[in-house]
Structure prediction request, 230 residues.
Amino acid sequence: MRLFVHVEGQTEEEFVNEVLALELYKVGYTSVSARICGAARARKRRGGICGWPTFREEVARHLRGDGDVYATTFVDFYALPSGGPTGWPGRDTCGGLQVYQKAKHIEAALKADFVANYGIDLSQRFLPFIAMHEFEGLLFSDPHLMAVGMGFDWLSADFQTIRDSFATPEHINDSRVTAPSKRILALAPGYNKILHGNVAALEVTLPRIREQCPVFHDWMNELELLVAAP
Prediction:
């Protein structure tokens, strides 16, 4: 089985290709690859999520062009466009929900919108995923190994203090000051998400991330069940 992961930037692209793919190959996938969607490619892969209609059409185009591939997403809840013609379905109607329910609400809205625009047959091969609140949140699954992986060993206790303030790494919130990446930058101005992020993810390990992050774990379960299905 083959899987195409539509992502918003180079950090997520490398995480899929260098970390996620290795795990999915173990359960039976024959190909796992990532693609940066939308205007991010035109901006020399700097990332930044595009509007939903553009993203949706790119996903649909790949599914139409390959009848055997499955498609999923890896995009951050933080800074996800909301409202207006380019907003992502469910983003502006999930404010009162808890973290886990926010992700599920948006994922269900994306799936429903995809079905409405492209029909059930094509949509059966589309499984959306929203990372709460952003990629860096996953790294807080093990603050010590996160610090070691980044080469910021001296920040291990500071990272642990942040982690201890939240129920799960996926609860670390999403303002311009308190998003996971902003918290890292406040402590380590030299942090570069492309350079440090995936090295830290490899150090933390995917099993540890799954253990600590239920939204991410559910997504992985869904992907594994695709292979196990008759």
User: Anything to note?
Assistant: The beta strands are 2-7, 31-36, 69-76, 126-127, 130-131.
